[in-house]
Amino acid sequence: MWAEQLRAARAAIRWDQTQLAHSAGVSVETVKRLEGMTGVLRVRLDTLEKIRRALETGGVEFTDDVAPGIRLPLFVKDGETVGRDYRFDVRYRGRTFVVRVSQSLLDAYEEQRTPKQPAEGRLKRMTALIGPVIITALQAGRAPSDDDNVMRLAPRDFEAAQIDSSRTMFSSNGKKAIAYR
Length: 181
Prior knowledge:
This protein is an alpha+beta fold.
């Protein structure tokens, strides 16, 4: 991975350095140091894999062809509160639809994944957290309803996303490979 890819990937999914560090299980100082580099990252392989896995789980695809770059097969617009739900506009591989999830479910998930975070910026953090859950649900065969183009996330989607992110590793070419820990 190149430093330029790292900066572009983080910016594309609108994570700050703290969110990336938390998701990858590395220090904020590590993220800052790596983003300050140019060219190919000079870092331990396990650290690089953690960062890459966190970004891929967040919805980034790395292109490691002749011209390294990134793609966003998933784009989630910042959410909004609608009644007792959060509503997110989503684009995944060219298809646009709406994702809804109950406030209580996503609030509990956010508290578990990012404990002790300030209330300020909460909905933006939730937008970043919901991406892996949406991808996991879609890969499991879930889809928006044909009637209203809405996919409603359920507790099983969050459970599956947690299991998937705890055992999924990505190889250097971005292909998913399962590694049990």
